[in-house]
Design goal:
Radius of gyration: 27 Å
Low-confidence stretches: 1-84, 184-204, 522-533, 597-605
Structural class: alpha+beta
CATH architecture of the domain at 9-60 and 282-507: 3-Layer(aba) Sandwich
Number of strands: 26
CATH topology of the domain at 9-60 and 282-507: Rossmann fold
Strand content: 15-25%
Mean pLDDT: 76
Shape: globular
Length: about 725
């Protein structure tokens, strides 16, 4: 199959040379395009000259003349002078009358205007009085409860229901900050379609809330304009037990030195001072200005609204995309989310591209927000480089699903937020531009560092995306490109703590996926029946080795190894102990040729090998050169092949929280080329056992081939001197 990148007008980008801006030049904005003559000729001089992109200038925080000097002084990232910045977690006063608790499961936090409070742990919250803003979303109190809060002694049962929202605040990411604001009360805080049901109202004694309001009214320092934030202990806190499976994740939801303190309810810990492990989630002011202006322009327009976030790795794309979704939920009942990042997926484990419909604000890291997607495809790798054509075809199909099912067949507008991959150099830039050509976003948010930094040419996208997309689509592209700075370029702390890298975060998502009992609230997709929203639950008390697997006969499924040729006799070894994609494939294949197992194996005498080879001969393997068309299949989830019985010819498969009606339709197991199984999944249940763990060794690695060969990008090559 020929590649789609062999002949295209965009191939001229590969000949670009990095050009460093002279020290005396004046920067015009972030990510100023530097196109070569070949690209300018392809894009057209008029299009390249008339750039209609909006650029946002980063605030001056250091002396720019020092920043552009040839020998720039190395300072700590996120600081102006290299000193650690002390960012307060909470600004609310630490007084007993500020936190009014019943000592069991409820606590009311009294906030003045512009005061903030930050928590570590898991909890539910609701606004009883006033307005609270967190991570871009604004929550308003119910008018009835505002009246009860003003006159709690006069309130009588029955009380109206409360809209509780779940919040997960572990130390893997920056912790959300709840800030009291003064905004018009006529704005709704949550879409009416997701209001609490009567069953959820019965879970809490509303009379206890009224008694707490009486204590607040009888306490000192009464303020008329204060905001009352109700914190409730989450009924199911099973996610905090994730450290039972991997000891390194033991203190995600509670730091070692924390105590319950003033709240006096389990699972919630207020914070005041930041530490290297605990950082507040600070939304930069330029982010607020750009998004507020962009969304205000799109209000009242029934046209297609697509917001695409682009940028290099570790630039804050995922943080900004979640912030943008929360902002859109202030205006829309539903927001579509297209996740293109294979390495750091938001709502699914890694290796999957997916389309979701979001109805609740995103208040938690990805491993706590896993949900059933509207549509998804299994790529089987943390990078699209294994098969760029198939990756781009899957993204194109997801955009078509959004246009045909979510946008065209719904009278209520549904905006789309796209989080792209961080591969923006070479072939990665080709992929990005071709995807933008298919998605046609109305606004492109391009994250980048300031041009005066020493690594700007390596991190920024140094081409004019709008000019290139406009030329490739034949003109008429009216989208906007908004340049916004990263959090690191604004002297702010990193949103992801340095304790966990990309591989550890992928490990967390896989652990959460295979130990999750039920997905969180999500809109049912076109392949499932509608169901009521449920809260996510986990079971980390039982190891994966103790769970009862499904038995899948060889003859009921097909096997696929995309972009890899596995010897026929090694097929079962390549599948055992691996993570596979559970795919429903509607493609009709011709009968596979019969393989002579004795000829391939060389008449082996080993009985075990003969049994394995004989069992493998009954497998239905799709040839490696065949690619499944995206419109003919979809992925229902992941499975872990924990064992294979070659005598009975069955697979033992563990799955995540996938409905039984979906599993019954699975007919293909896809083994991804770059999908690694974490050691925590292998060793689940063997932590205190002396039994031999298959495919593992506790000995020190010695000799050639004992360790995985990983690519290194930090090697500097010496250039020959010019005579």
């Amino acid at each position: 199959m020929s590649s789609g990148y062999a002949n295209n007008q965009f191939a001229a980008l590969r000949s670009l040379k990095r050009v460093r801006r002279p020290a005396g030049s004046t920067p015009t904005g972030l990510g100023n395009p530097r196109l070569s003559e070949a690209v300018l000729a392809a894009a057209g001089s008029e299009t390249a000259g008339e750039q209609n992109t909006e650029q946002y200038e980063a605030p001056s925080r250091i002396d720019r003349t020092e920043a552009v000097s040839p020998k720039r002084k190395r300072v700590a990232r996120g600081t102006a002078d290299g000193q650690a910045r002390d960012v307060p977690m909470s600004t609310v006063e630490q007084r007993p009358e500020t936190f009014v608790s019943n000592g069991v499961d409820l606590c009311i936090v009294r906030l003045k205007a512009d005061e903030s409070v930050c928590f570590n742990g898991v909890f539910d919250f609701a606004v009883l009085k006033g307005t609270v803003q967190v991570y871009g979303h604004t929550f308003h109190s119910d008018p009835v409860w505002s009246y009860i809060a003003a006159q709690p002694h006069a309130a009588k049962a029955p009380y109206p229901g409360l809209d509780f929202v779940q919040c997960y605040s572990p130390t893997t990411h920056a912790l959300p900050v709840f800030r009291a604001t003064q905004q018009p009360a006529n704005q709704r805080s949550m879409p009416p379609s997701i209001s609490m049901s009567e069953a959820n109202v019965d879970q809490i004694s509303l009379a206890s809330v009224q008694k707490l309001l009486v204590k607040v009214a009888e306490g000192p320092h009464q303020l008329l304009d204060e905001t009352l934030l109700l914190i409730r202990a989450m009924s199911d806190r099973s996610v905090v037990n994730i450290g039972r499976r991997v000891p390194g994740f033991a203190h995600l939801f509670r730091s070692k030195d924390q105590h319950t303190g003033l709240l006096d309810i389990p699972g919630v810990y207020p914070l005041w001072n930041s530490t290297p492990e605990l950082k507040p989630l600070i939304i930069p002011k330029p982010w607020e200005d750009v998004t507020e202006g962009s969304l205000s322009e799109s209000d009242g327009t029934p046209d297609r609204s697509v917001h695409c976030v682009v940028g290099s790795k570790n630039m804050g794309k995922s943080t900004f995309a979640r912030y943008l979704v929360n902002k859109l939920l202030n205006r829309y009942e539903r927001v579509a989310y297209l996740d293109c990042d294979l390495g750091q997926s938001e709502f699914t484990p890694a290796g999957i591209v997916s389309l979701h419909v979001i109805t609740r604000p995103l208040l938690g890291p990805p491993f706590t927000l896993l949900r059933d997607p509207y549509q998804c495809y299994f790529i089987g790798s943390s990078s699209p480089k294994e098969d760029t054509d198939h990756y781009l075809a899957c993204l194109r199909e997801l955009v078509n699903v959004y246009d045909k099912e979510l946008l065209a067949q719904d009278d209520i507008p549904v905006p789309l937020v796209i989080n792209t991959h961080g591969w923006v150099k070479g072939m990665g830039l080709d992929l990005l531009v071709h995807f933008l050509l298919d998605a046609r976003p109305s606004r492109i948010y391009q994250l980048g560092v300031h041009e005066t930094t020493s690594y700007s040419s390596a991190k920024n996208i140094n081409v004019d995306l709008k000019a290139i997309v406009n030329d490739m689509c034949g003109g008429g592209y009216t989208g906007q490109v908004l340049h916004i700075p990263t959090s690191a370029d604004l002297s702010l702390p990193r949103q992801n703590t340095v304790r966990f890298g990309a591989s550890e975060l992928r490990h967390l998502s896989l652990l959460s996926y295979f130990h999750q009992s039920a997905f969180g609230p999500s809109l049912s997709n076109s392949h499932s029946t509608p169901s009521a929203p449920t809260n996510p639950t986990w079971n980390f008390d039982e190891s994966l080795t103790a769970q009862l697997p499904y038995e899948v006969p060889f003859q009921t499924v097909r096997i696929m190894f995309p972009n890899a040729e596995v010897p026929f006799s090694q097929t079962l070894h390549a599948l055992n102990g691996c993570i596979v994609g559970l795919v429903i494939d509607r493609t009709e294949y011709a009968a596979a040729p019969v393989v002579d197992s004795e000829e391939e194996e060389g008449n082996a005498d080993d009985t075990e090998t003969e049994t394995t080879t004989s069992a493998a001969s009954s497998l239905r393997i799709i040839p490696p050169g065949v690619s499944i068309a995206p419109h003919r299949h979809y992925c229902v989830g992941l499975g872990l092949i924990r064992g294979i019985d070659p005598v009975r010819q069955v697979f033992h498969v563990l799955t995540g929280p996938i409905p039984a009606e979906h599993l019954s339709m699975v007919n293909t197991l896809v083994r991804g080329p770059g999908y690694e199984t974490p050691v925590g999944l292998f060793g689940s249940g063997y932590e205190n056992s002396r039994a031999h763990l298959p495919y593992t060794s506790r000995l020190s690695s010695e000799g050639f081939g004992s360790l995985a060969w990983r690519t290194r990008h930090n090697l500097l090559r010496k250039r020959p001197r010019q005579l």
